[in-house]
């Protein structure tokens, strides 16, 4: 995971703590809204398994709490959580692109494309 964090710090211009928090938001959004097993594999292969919330806490986890604040879950809650970390739209886009590029290197295009395709409209945000 250190390699992924370092890449995000370098490419997005945020500190390591912000990069880690942002990745936690992204992984848990994808895990909740996408194919969980594939996201878990990506987390393992990128060394980021520790960023996934435990199943027993997912409903009341970060995205669940934010979803309640912003009237729903999913992409809007994830975007709001990333914004709450102090990231602007450009930084969020660069962070997501950096994460996707890294994931493609580690698990291949097929797995990453499966996750992207499974969440309606996500491909248009990338």
In short, what is this structure?
With 126 residues, the chain is mostly helical. The chain contains 9 helices and no strands.
Fold topology:
Layout: H1 2-12, H2 16-33, H3 36-45, H4 55-58, H5 62-70, H6 74-84, H7 89-107, H8 109-118, H9 122-125
Structural class label:
mainly alpha
Taking pLDDT < 50 over at least 5 consecutive residues as the criterion, the unreliable ranges are 55-72
The helix content, as a percent range, equals: over 70%
**How would you state the average pLDDT, rounded?**
85
Tell me what the structure shows.
Helix 2 (16-33) runs antiparallel to helix 3 (36-45) and helix 5 crosses helix 6 (74-84). Residues 55-72 have low confidence and may be disordered. The protein is 76% helix and 0% strand. It has helices spanning 2-12, 16-33, 36-45, 55-58, 62-70, 74-84, 89-107, 109-118, 122-125. With 126 residues, the protein is mainly alpha-helical. The protein starts with a helix and ends with a helix. The protein is built from nine helices and no strands.
Summarize this structure as a short list of keywords or feature phrases.
126 residues; mainly alpha; 0% strand
